[in-house]
Amino acid sequence: MALVEINFDGIIGPSHNYAGLSIGNLASSYNAGAPSHPKAAALQGIEKMRTNLRLGLAQGFFVPLDRPNQNWLAGLSTDMQSAEPHIRAAAFSASAMWAANAATVSPAPDTADGKCHVSVANLITMPHRTHEWPGTLAQLKLAFANEQHFAVHGPVPAPFGDEGAANFMRLCTTHSDAGVEIFVYGKTGGLFPARQHIEASKAIARTHRLDPAKTLFVQQSEMAIAAGAFHNDVVAVANAYVLFTHEQAFESSDKTYADVKRLMPETEIIIVPADRVSLADAIQSYLFNAQLVTLPDGGMALILPSEAQEKVRVWGWLTEMVADNGPIRKLVPVDVRQSMANGGGPACLRLRVVADPATVDPRFIADEAKLNAIAEVVNAYWPETIAPDQVGDPDLLDKVRLARLALLEATYLVSLA
Ligand code: SUG
């Protein structure tokens, strides 16, 4: 069977809130302390999955992690009642929703043993994300338990930061062909941290048994990180033979484009010039944090945040591009505003896995009926709103735990409890 790209979206968890935890992520900082709307957030995410299904795309999902993370708090010899506010907020964060940061995935055609390799990300730069990986790994091991087709790996050891597929792109002729894998790392971002370290990227390439002749390590531009592109997927995205990128995404753009063309000459590189869309506009509108997908008719679409439609210069450039007979033919705006307010667009919410869906645990594969069942649980159990001073409230903590358990029951995933 031909391999297809399956997008696994993180279901937005019941503890979704705005705690301003991610320095360098401008939306997270601007919205710190605002009330959040977990139910609306999760329903927006579910609608995005429905949009993808209706476009004829394969869709999967991951469930939220157990929050607050009592084990992590216990490791710090504290609990939700006595922890300092920033520790409490870190333990309660729903940040695992951004599944692009869950892992790096090298599809079977790219690896020496013909298996799809999946490495869970250590996320060690931001304290609230450091404790995601054990829960994420448990889920990856379940979803991709078929050892004939998948190899699931633990995290790269500290101190090398790894943020998963958010700093990774793959180019190929079709998903079933061997591709070129591009790892994007940061060195410095001025006042902001570079979250992806080259040592981590290289370790993953070795673990995944990639062909060094078809692997690139590319430095993200310092200017982009300093402007708020805390992950490369905020300024560039690739699909099949298309690389869609902002002019200022990479530190050495010309060398990057030349290397890409050398390894895959048929690549079409679409560069958005800074004098048409500034880095600031790109970061505010998240036009690159789009799902660039191949539709069943062979054309490509950008599933992008509705914020991109609201910026005249951004939308102007995009509509010109699709009218121009290039490979990207369709723009599909989706409303994921609750996630966007924490710096997570449509592409952040999903992990791409190129595989035969029949080899994945079916409990993680979505269809309309399953999304209806998930939406029912969200409607019944997810909090309407969370104000910042509620984060330690025992009633809210109970509600959040019960909500997740109800979802695990509805998705037959109680073993993850
Ligand atoms: O790691 N935001 C996430 C957003 C991740 C976006 N993912 C990708 N670009 N692929 C982050 O910065 C904010 C949480 C808070 O402030 O409450 C947060 O973690």
Architecture overview:
- With 417 residues, the chain is of the alpha/beta class.
- The protein has a single domain (4-416), classed as Succinylarginine dihydrolase (L-arginine/glycine Amidinotransferase, Chain A, 5-stranded Propeller), CATH 3.75.10.
- The protein has 15 helices and 15 strands.
- The protein has helices at residues 26-30, 38-54, 70-75, 85-92, 127-130, 133-143, 198-207, 222-226, 253-263, 279-285, 306-310, 312-323, 337-340, 368-381, 394-410, and strands at residues 4-10, 58-62, 103-106, 116-120, 150-153, 168-171, 180-185, 215-219, 236-239, 242-246, 268-272, 291-294, 300-305, 328-334, 350-355.
- Helix 2 (38-54) runs antiparallel to helix 14 and helix 14 runs antiparallel to helix 15.
- The chain is globular.
- Bound molecules: N~2~-(3-carboxypropanoyl)-L-arginine (SUG).
Mean pLDDT: 97
Radius of gyration: 20 Å
Please identify which CATH superfamily we are dealing with.
Succinylarginine dihydrolase
SSE pattern, N- to C-terminal: EHHEHHEEHHEEEHEHEEHEHEEHHEHEHH
Q: What is the count of helical runs? A: 15
| CATH fold category name | L-arginine/glycine Amidinotransferase, Chain A
Structural class: alpha/beta
Ligands bound, unique? N~2~-(3-carboxypropanoyl)-L-arginine
- Unreliable segments of 5+ consecutive residues: none
Q: How would you describe the shape? A: globular
Could you describe the largest sheet, including whether it forms a barrel? 3 strands, mixed
Helix content: 25-40%
CATH level 1 name? Alpha Beta
Task: Tell me the total number of β-strands.
Answer: 15
* Largest beta sheet: strand ordering: 2-1-15
Distance between the termini: 34 Å
Number of domains: 1
CATH architecture: 5-stranded Propeller
Q: Hey, roughly how much beta strand do the residues contain?
A: 15-25%
